[in-house]
Write a structure and sequence with these properties.
The protein is of the alpha/beta class and 183 residues long. Helix content is 27%, strand content 14%. It contains six helices and seven strands; from the N terminus they run ββααβαβαβαβαβ.
């Protein structure tokens, strides 16, 4: 909870801590008001459940960017709900080259259905070298959707020099720091 306490516990009284200020998988839960959203009771819960974090976060990172433009290049690290939503929104906004990067190649097929055009598994080589072989001066818009600070750095440094933009969406582990070379 925002006040540092928890309203959840196991049957034997052991405290259960919230993740990022919210909790799930319980029949009844006490939440802070900032963690709630009013949903029309007539809504289909199987449809509105996607309005949690992943899809609005990914979509918002693209749709709320006034500089995003058609015919741009986009690179997305991490193909979970957030990364797939970034890909889908970038496709809708007219991106023509969408690079999907993930260590799980099984995710590439679904990323393709969302609009990704190129795919790379960083366990098979250097993602930066691979991207530069496609986009000589870097990517117009890069998105870290992993929370890994090394990936954040790669995404930042792969933004096109001079005008590229990098969005760090992933949340790093406590105590981690991002360092990079300014240019």
């Amino acid at each position: 909870m925002p006040d540092g306490t928890s309203r959840l516990s196991t049957l034997d009284g052991q405290m259960i801590y919230h993740f990022m200020g919210c909790s799930t998988f319980s029949e009844y839960t006490v939440l802070a008001s900032i963690s709630l959203a009013k949903i029309n009771p007539e809504s289909d819960p199987f449809k509105v459940c996607v309005l949690g974090c992943g899809i609005p976060t990914g979509w918002g990172a693209v749709m709320n960017n006034p500089n995003f433009h058609a015919n741009s290049s986009v690179a997305v690290w991490g193909l979970g709900a957030v990364g797939l939503a970034v890909i889908q929104a970038a496709k809708i906004r007219g991106a023509t080259r969408i690079y999907a990067i993930d260590i799980n190649a099984k995710k590439f097929e679904i990323a393709k259905t969302f609009g990704a055009t190129h795919f790379f598994n960083p366990l098979e080589g250097n993602a930066r070298d691979w991207l530069l072989s496609h986009e000589k001066w870097g990517i117009d818009f890069t998105y870290d959707c992993t929370g890994n600070v090394q990936v954040m750095r790669d995404a930042l440094e792969m933004a096109h020099r001079g005008f590229g933009e990098s969005m760090v969406i992933g949340v790093a582990s406590a105590g981690k720091e991002l360092s990079t070379r300014p240019f």
